[in-house]
Design a protein that fits this description.
Elements: H1 2-31, H2 39-51, E1 62-66, H3 74-80, E2 85-89, H4 93-106, E3 111-114, E4 128-134, H5 139-146, E5 150-160, H6 163-170, E6 178-184, E7 193-199
Parallel strand pairs: 1-2, 1-4, 2-3, 4-5
Antiparallel strand pairs: 5-7, 6-7
Helix pairs in contact: 1-2, 1-3, 1-4
């Protein structure tokens, strides 16, 4: 019975992911929210790329994805982890509308959109176990704008590219306040690394 549930859940995940990609392609024709032209490009460079963060988010109950764009990785996390509440922050109204529309279309009860920028003055109903961002800004800048929203034992997970650039960013972190781990992934297309940052 448990095996059957796993298969059924995976089937539902695949179905929702496919529908998400179709929504991107449909919306992209008029509004150009991602720089991809085909389903295969989106699957390779966006979907598979964002799925690389999932091993690091499984235990989270409450996630904030900053600058979510077209819902990447926020919607991918929400699709794969129905037990996790995912809040996506996107100040671009067109992209925020797309995320809201997609949440409704896919009937994702664990996802919501915050259509404003994350700043040190932003107040949310609760704090977050994990704060994510994908190619948004240097790590120290994202931490500065959002650290007040992270729970006491929470962590930042930032999706980054080249290791040289990452080393420059982590060198700017306050050594007495933060510790970090750099996770290399198997995605050769994007040279993807994930920085995990925690408070000491």
């Amino acid at each position: 019975m448990r095996r059957y549930n796993q298969i059924k859940n995976q089937s539902k995940t695949n179905e929702l992911t496919k529908a998400f990609v179709e929504e991107i392609l449909r919306f992209n024709k008029a509004h150009n929210i991602v720089g991809r032209l085909t389903e295969s490009e989106i699957n390779l460079l966006d979907v598979l790329d964002c799925e690389l963060i999932l091993p690091h988010t499984k235990s989270a109950k409450n996630i904030l994805d900053i600058g979510s764009g077209a819902g990447l990785p926020g919607l991918i996390i929400a699709i794969h982890q129905p037990q996790t509440k995912v809040t996506m922050s996107e100040k671009n109204k067109k992209k925020a509308y797309f995320i809201k529309k997609t949440i409704r279309t896919l009937k994702l009860e664990n996802a919501k959109i915050l259509d404003e920028a994350v700043t040190p003055n932003l107040i949310t109903a609760s704090k977050f176990d994990i704060i994510t961002a994908r190619a948004l800004a240097p790590a120290p800048k994202i931490i500065e704008m959002s650290k007040h929203l992270l729970s006491n034992k929470g962590k930042f997970l930032f999706m980054k590219g080249a290791i040289e650039k990452i080393n420059e960013e982590v060198a700017q972190l306050e050594n007495n306040t933060y510790s970090y781990t750099i996770h290399k992934t198997k995605n050769t297309e994007t040279n993807r690394h994930i920085i995990e940052i925690t408070q000491k």
